[in-house]
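Title: Comparing notes on inverse folding

I've been comparing how different people in this forum approach sequence design from structure. To keep things fair, I'm posting one structure and asking everyone to reply with a full sequence. Here's the target:
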């Protein structure tokens, strides 16, 4: 229970602080370089962002400062639920592997297996929440519209007032498949957690051994910051293209449109091939900068809060 509560608190804290960067990451992930010229001429609903600073200025100017917090309700609820269930399941699986012996050290492949299984379970539970978050972040407020069909496209986008309204709307309009759009790359992206936790656990154990701490001892906060940052950087760089694919497949405007792109790329492999043919490797890492700016402090905050809350709840429970 202490792992569940600590994970919920950690996810909630990091999300409240850093949601605008998550919002920007999603906006970048779904934009297409091939559509830049059309966007500049006002031919598309969504603006095209030339960079991080340009994106922030454009969004604040055309949609207002509050737009940077679109999707916050879904992100807060999803992050708290995801991190809580993830840490809870991860620690449960490790407990089974240790056969109740808390002092037994697990091998890297055992940490990877535990993290992967925890990630799959968590993703199956939370994917509908991430679909709503993605679509809310992509709703363009007060757009400058021009071009045929722009008003209809804008109306189709601006349909989710919050998390539960989004869940019920998608269920009514698209059914279970809509709530689980993007689930294939999402499940593959659970490898992200496996890579991250293998590195995190290994570095944490090395630090404990090097400093001569007792097994399971709490490390200084600075150590948790450094270990979390290193493990997250490695995992993010390795698996980021899967996040891009997931965001694009969860994009409601594409799913509801009759554009040739969606017709040609309505699956993970087809979408991968389509993006590669259009722009090569570039679209697979679009939005990486705001994501790295977000995930570094986010991960550090999450793991530091988790480790400290875990100790507090463990002592109390």
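Reply #1:
Here's my take.
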């Amino acid at each position: 229970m202490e792992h569940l509560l600590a994970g919920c608190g950690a996810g909630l804290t990091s999300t409240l602080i850093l949601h605008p960067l998550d919002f920007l990451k999603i906006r970048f992930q779904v934009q297409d370089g091939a559509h830049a010229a059309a966007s500049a001429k006002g031919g598309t609903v969504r603006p095209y962002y030339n960079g991080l600073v340009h994106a922030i200025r454009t969004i604040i100017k055309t949609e207002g400062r509050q737009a940077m917090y679109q999707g916050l309700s879904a992100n807060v609820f999803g992050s708290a639920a995801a991190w809580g269930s993830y840490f809870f399941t991860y620690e449960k699986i490790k407990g089974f592997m240790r056969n109740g012996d808390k002092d037994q050290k697990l091998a890297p492949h055992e940490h990877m297996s535990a993290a992967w299984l925890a990630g799959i379970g968590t993703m199956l539970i939370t994917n509908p929440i991430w679909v709503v978050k993605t679509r809310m972040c992509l709703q363009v407020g007060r757009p400058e519209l021009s071009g045929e069909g722009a008003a209809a496209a804008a109306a189709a986008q601006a349909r989710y007032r919050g998390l539960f309204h989004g869940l019920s709307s998608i269920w009514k309009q698209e059914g279970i498949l809509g709530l689980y759009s993007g689930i294939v790359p999402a499940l593959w992206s659970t490898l992200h957690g496996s890579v991250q936790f293998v590195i995190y656990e290994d570095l944490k154990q090395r630090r404990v051994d090097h400093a001569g701490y007792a097994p399971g001892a709490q490390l200084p906060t600075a150590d948790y910051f450094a270990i979390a940052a290193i493990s997250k950087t490695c995992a993010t760089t390795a698996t980021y293209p899967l996040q891009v694919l997931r965001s694009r497949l969860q994009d409601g405007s594409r799913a509801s449109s009759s554009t040739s792109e969606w017709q040609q790329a309505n699956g993970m492999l087809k979408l991968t091939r389509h993006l590669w043919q259009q722009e090569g490797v570039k679209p697979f890492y679009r939005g990486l900068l705001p994501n790295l700016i977000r995930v570094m402090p986010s991960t550090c905050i999450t793991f530091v809060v988790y480790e400290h809350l875990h100790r507090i709840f463990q002592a109390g429970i």
